[in-house]
Design a protein that fits this description.
With about 350 residues, the protein is of the alpha/beta class. It has eleven helices and eleven strands. Strands 3-4-7-8-9-10-11 form a seven-stranded mixed beta sheet. A four-stranded mixed beta sheet has the order 1-2-6-5. The chain is globular.
Length: about 350
Amino acid sequence: MRWDNLTDGPRGPGQAGALFGAASVVTRTFDTPEFRGMTFHEVRARSVLNRVPGASRMPFEWTVNPYRGCSHACVYCFARKTHGYLDLDTGVGFDSQIVVKTNAPELLRRELASSRWAGAHIAMGTNVDCYQRAEGRYRLMPGIIEALLERANPFSILTKGTLILRDLPLLRRAAAVADVGICVSVGFTDAELWRTVEPGTPSPTARLAAVRALTDAGIECGVLMAPVIPFLGDSPEQLRATVRAVAESGATSVTPLVLHLRPGAREWFTAWLADRHPHLVERYERMYAGGSYAPTWYQRQITRQVHELAAEFGIGPSRRGAARRIPVPERPAGPAPAEPVQLSLL
């Protein structure tokens, strides 16, 4: 593996160079039920604060990622390519070969104490999920949150993991002294789709229950409705069901994000698509012919639909965090109405 002299773009304040050396790597494989088939590469990282490249579309400048690779095994994960930097497989290897930065909490505490650090917002869960299954064993996030809490440093967390509820007391303490943003990713509520594209994640229902628990505890929590998957999760019925469930969870906001397929993820997703939905391969080739992102018109269409549904179900600043008990309308007597028609996208 290429551990030595590995660079991954700009590092922390005034820092650059290798992430960790080969001598620091300890590899462990566990056969317990919750970790069967997984291998953990424990490393002593040299930096944990990462500066986001200036060309990025991200609305933040700094991130912390205690893990590389992710047991959520989402077939569309854009971070798959990063495993190749370590000569690790970007397919099944990304799902099962997890790099663990075991010294992340102590390293972050030291970097936050630097005179060069100005207290900027730090985003977590933006590369791989910091509350994936490995966190249940290594428990890195409590130390990371404590380090941020000590400095009253603002931060945000994006996750598909319900394990975040374990750290609810710490999050409440942090939110009392700093700006803390929590967002749970739920792209759809279709159970069959979930089992095939996100096999290692908690169910959408469990994730929305976590949103409810967070908001009930006074922690504002939004939902990133991501990804909206063309031709598989974008029908009017699916969008309505998802936004309705998000509203009922008490989420403070819902933000749609259409599937994007960067190099690395694109090849893995296309192979999955050819196996599970071969009739869609050609449509995807046309949809993503222009690059990693779906056409702007399609993204705008999905955004408009989701925003209209959010307004209908009462998600917004005027009712932040309030549970929505949305009545199911009675069907009129007589023949059932015709099903809505999905217009052709291409």
